[in-house]
Amino acid sequence: MGWVIFTASSLACGLSVNLAELIFFRILQGAGAAMLFSISSALIFDTTPSSQRGRAMGYLGSTVAIGSIAGPVLGGFIVDSLGWQYIFFINIPLGVLLIIAALMYLRFDTRHIGQFNFDWHGSAALMGVFVSLILVLGSLAADTAITFGVLIGTAVFCCMLVMFIWHEKRCPAPLLNLSLFSNRAFLLSVLGLVIAFVANFMMVVVGPFYFEGVLVYRPSQVGLVFLINPAVMVIVAPVAGSLYDRRPKRNYASLGMLITTIAFGMLAYFSLTREVPGILVSFVFFGIGVGLFQSPNNTTIMNALPKEHLAVASSVTATGRNLGMALGVSLGSILLSLQLNNAGYNGAVPDAGPALLALSISQIMVISAILCLIVAVLTFQR
């Protein structure tokens, strides 16, 4: 069903005649994608022997990395050659093939669970939590001033969060059983996942400003630099998963975050000195660290809960990953704006000047390093 919704909405996106239609169908496309992402880890765990689950999660990490490599490159080529509509049209034949493959090969043991009651109230409250949070952070990223709208949005976020927790604790069939977070390994691994993605995407959003504004790279050159990380992850993620299968007691996730901390520290230093070879080496270390972290950490999340909660663990992982991405983009934008404003500059970011941009982005890399160090401690404590 996820593939059906994603494929149909992709067609509708490509046929959109105005921005409002495109946004609406993109929301539907996101819903279809969420149906895929939220259960992917659960399906992998359900069909993989316990002795090979780390490797399987490593392959999933490699797949994500390959998508990160192919997406920007193919997207730019398609837009330049055929037009933006074909970014969506290309999904249609792929989607049809995957729908057929799913119908032919996705066969699972069915379990009778009795009457199913969906928690509509909890779902609405959780949606309110995320929407209000992203709107507040988006407003702050555009203008760091604390406006009346930001205060109202913050109040709505707090109210929705309290309402969600209050409802879930009293609901007989909650959307999210909050008692699952009493599991220390599950809680710390999910928290580490969110913080790690926040740190990573802070770099993703401010990095291009550095390469274009300080090193005067063309967009195509920036894209090649940012391919280093996923290219390294393609190799490291399956290796990390295999190591986890052989020696699950070893804390590869903490080691990965320590390496990522070092990578961010190197980026902070070489951003100031403008040494391109050092920056490129930092990206290699960054890919190694993230590759070592993701597969073992995701496997720990899935292993931490009983089998009947695999789907919950999978959906929480997907939600945490996307929440971390959104928070990272917003916080990176907010921090960059604050750094420039504190220096007395209020113009467009690319025109801030090489020295000011280098200093501001270097300081953000230090913050990312601190966040990764926190994740290393969290994952070590579990």
Can you describe what's shown?
The protein has two domains: 2-118 and 175-381, Up-down Bundle (Growth Hormone, Chain: A); 119-174. Helix 10 runs parallel beside helix 12 (276-304), helix 11 packs antiparallel against helix 12 and helix 11 packs antiparallel against helix 14 (354-381). The protein is mainly α. The chain has helices spanning 2-14, 19-47, 53-81, 85-89, 91-105, 120-142, 148-170, 184-213, 219-226, 228-246, 252-273, 276-304, 310-342, 354-381. The mean pLDDT is 87. It is 80% helix and 0% strand.
Overall number of strands: 0
Shape: globular
Name the helix and strand elements from N-terminus to C-terminus, one letter apiece: HHHHHHHHHHHHHH
**Percent strand:** under 5%
What would the CATH topology of the largest domain be?
Answer: Growth Hormone, Chain: A
CATH superfamily of the largest domain: MFS general substrate transporter like domains
- Tally the helices: 14
Helices and strands: which structural class? mainly alpha
